[in-house]
Design the sequence.
């Protein structure tokens, strides 16, 4: 057979395309459930990690059921638009001027309530995302996890490390008595210690990725503000956020107060 | 004799006919994935799988491929293999796949794969082609691992993400070499490997 003929070439190419497409479709369909399961499990693990529950692939679903008591979706006005837990789990955060879809996961661990929200932003090369949990005072960050699509290996991709994520624990979104969202601030050159309430040390060599993380946290909490204001005025558990802050959880919640106390005692 | 030849197909690319240092192929990805040892190793394995399988398939089809569209056919087979590897990694080794992220897809653009298809698989039987693919993938992998070892050790003082340079060195004033983490250093390291190899094996030197 003459394999150089035009008709042969065209037929050969067509068969090839169809065959390759068929193989890819079959593989994609065959592995779809497994892949989706992996993605869901990772999401569960990430949400659990923000409230300090370590889960693996096997027990993620079970621990998630135990820890996450409620999940719902709110909009930018703070109204609940979806209250089914499974649907809320499947919803990804979308931030826009109107029709925001903002999932909230209400967790309970050791008798304490936490609010976990998803985060979404831009790093240096691509998307970054993650989850952050707030303590019931709706001000103190209890834990964060970050992930990224394509930050520089060895530099920007360190946002996924425990060391970096640990820096956010205990930081405040608001100054005491103030209603203006301050969020977190990234400092270069180790200056974050001068701002114990909001300051985070930047990753060296990855300033732009660090700034991306800062903007992601501040932008995302901004759209959740309406919802958190709503529940802090209505829900009895968090009725007096400011009083709770300064009396009850003094030592753990406010590093600044804590260190001044220690200093006075020492002197 | 045939056995000897087959063995050579695997051993030669490891040294004298190394795709990176002798054929100067696949340099770009060698720069990108060698900051740390672990992704470098997974990348090396993935490239070996893709090169071997596509060499094998193209060699099976070699007498049926019209020469005018052979590059397109090769490209299609390579992309098919890469997507399959990516899909399988996503389903069974999710964490690893996440670490490699874009690099798995970029295997398609690795010149070694296409280079071996053109130079070897189109003119040889399936078994030698398969071995040639494995050999060249491994040859690429060796260089990747050497470069990644040096870069991770001196760039961040770690191997496989664990600290190996003890704290007392840092206390004495030792510092990690940040330049190691940047792509130019990978190019310089590959250059040095080529230099060492060529001064040892005179036959590789161009006249």
Sequence:
């Amino acid at each position: 057979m003459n394999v150089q003929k035009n008709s042969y070439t065209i037929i050969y190419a067509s068969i090839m395309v169809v065959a390759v497409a068929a193989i890819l479709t079959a593989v994609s369909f065959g592995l779809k459930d497994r892949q989706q399961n992996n993605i869901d499990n990772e999401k569960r693990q990430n949400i659990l990690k923000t409230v300090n529950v370590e889960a693996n692939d096997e027990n993620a679903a079970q621990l998630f059921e135990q820890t996450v008591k409620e999940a719902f979706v709110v909009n930018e006005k703070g109204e609940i638009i979806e209250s089914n837990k499974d649907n809320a789990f499947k919803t990804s955060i979308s931030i826009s001027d109107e029709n925001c879809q903002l999932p909230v996961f209400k967790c309970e661990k050791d008798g304490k309530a936490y609010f976990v929200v998803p985060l979404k932003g831009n790093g240096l090369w691509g998307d970054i995302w993650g989850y952050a949990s707030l303590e019931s005072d709706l001000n103190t960050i209890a834990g964060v996890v970050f992930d990224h699509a394509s930050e520089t290996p060895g530099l920007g991709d360190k946002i996924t490390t425990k060391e970096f994520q640990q820096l956010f624990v205990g930081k405040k979104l608001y100054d005491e008595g103030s209603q203006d969202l301050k969020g977190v601030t990234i400092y270069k050159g180790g200056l974050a210690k001068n701002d114990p309430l909001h300051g985070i040390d930047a990753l060296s060599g990855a300033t732009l990725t660090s700034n991306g993380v800062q903007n992601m946290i501040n932008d995302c909490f901004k759209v959740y503000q309406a919802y958190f204001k709503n529940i802090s005025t209505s829900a009895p558990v968090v009725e007096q956020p400011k009083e709770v802050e300064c009396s009850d959880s003094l030592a753990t919640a406010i590093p600044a107060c804590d260190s001044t106390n220690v200093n006075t005692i020492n002197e | 004799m045939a056995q000897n030849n087959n063995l050579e197909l695997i051993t030669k690319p490891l040294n004298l006919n190394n795709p990176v240092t002798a054929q100067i192929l696949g340099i770009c990805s060698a720069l990108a994935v060698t900051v740390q040892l672990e992704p470098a190793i997974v990348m090396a394995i993935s490239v070996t799988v893709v090169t071997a399988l596509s060499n094998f398939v193209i060699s099976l089809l070699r007498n049926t491929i019209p020469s005018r569209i052979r590059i397109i056919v090769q490209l299609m087979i390579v992309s098919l293999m890469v997507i399959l590897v990516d899909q399988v990694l996503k389903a069974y080794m999710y964490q690893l796949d996440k670490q490699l992220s874009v690099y798995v897809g970029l295997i398609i653009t690795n010149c070694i794969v296409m280079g071996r298809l053109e130079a070897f698989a189109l003119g040889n039987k399936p078994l030698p082609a398969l071995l040639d693919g494995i050999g060249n993938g491994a040859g690429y992998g060796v260089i990747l691992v050497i470069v990644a070892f040096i870069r991770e050790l001196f760039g961040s003082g770690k191997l496989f993400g664990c600290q190996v340079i003890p704290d007392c060195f840092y206390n004495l004033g030792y510092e990690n070499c940040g330049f190691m983490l940047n792509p130019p250093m990978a190019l310089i390291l590959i250059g040095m490997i080529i230099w060492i190899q060529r001064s040892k094996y005179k036959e590789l030197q161009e006249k």
